[in-house]
């Protein structure tokens, strides 16, 4: 059966309108983030999203974890529809433009305790480890790969800035939650219309309001990647003066060499 809404139609109806409105508001509102700093960070996030997500979809689609309705996509590159690659670009923009409305910032030094960094790294790697174990069973295959895929990124982000992220946890939670809930709704509508179909065999079978928990987790972790990455990127730029200058490093190396 041919679907009534195509994947490209999902972008036109559900993704582009809020994206354009949020971008317009960010440019006009004095208190919103805009300009070279957040936009350059967004560019980095888009590049990382495309590079890091492409192998995952091209692994899971041929395994039958999900597929697309008849006539839902225009064409595929590798195993992934071009509309999916487009979503790798549009989702970071949508989520970032919402973050720009509620920027999460705090006056905190880059020097955070080593123990906090280790906890962050261990937390991310633990998620990846559990995911690796879950990939061995068919019913937890999708969930396992999501956790295995997400864990290393979370380890890097939490290892760098867990303390700072906790400091700005309230605006951070709002920045992650709103686009996540919105994309849950869009995903549920698309599933209901048959734009894409999630495999019963490769999921654990828990689907609140018809949305598989694996799909919900995907949007949660990807939005967390985007928001946490941008928040820490701006934090790093704001605190660049704390980093040792190249001249200072050179002088210290020279002094050490003279002493020897």
Write up what this structure looks like.
The protein is mainly alpha-helical and 260 residues long. The protein has one domain. Helix content is 69%, strand content 4%. A two-stranded antiparallel sheet has the order 1-4. Helix 2 packs antiparallel against helix 7 (213-238) and helix 3 crosses helix 7.
Task: Give a quick set of tags describing it.
69% helix, mainly alpha, 260 residues, transmembrane helix, Lycopene_cyclase_dom, lycopene beta cyclase activity, two-stranded antiparallel sheet
Q: Short description, anyone?
A:
Helices cover 69% and strands 4% of the residues.
Q: Biggest β-sheet, characterized?
A: 2 strands, antiparallel
Please report which band the strand proportion falls in: under 5%, 5-15%, 15-25%, 25-35%, 35-45% or over 45%: under 5%
**Poorly predicted parts:** none
> Strand order within the widest sheet?
1-4
Task: Kindly state the number of beta strands.
Answer: 4
Transmembrane segments: 6-26, 38-61, 85-102, 114-134, 140-160, 172-196, 216-236
Keywords: Carotenoid biosynthesis, Isomerase, Membrane, Transmembrane, Transmembrane helix
Subcellular location: Membrane
Pathway: Carotenoid biosynthesis
Please write out the topology.
Layout: H1 7-28, H2 36-60, E1 66-68, E2 76-77, E3 80-81, H3 82-101, H4 114-134, H5 141-167, H6 169-193, E4 196-198, H7 213-238, H8 246-259
Antiparallel strand pairs: 1-4, 2-3
Helix pairs in contact: 1-3, 2-3, 2-7, 3-6, 3-7, 4-5, 5-7, 6-7
Pathway: Carotenoid biosynthesis
Membrane topology: Multi-pass membrane protein
Organism: Halosolutus amylolyticus
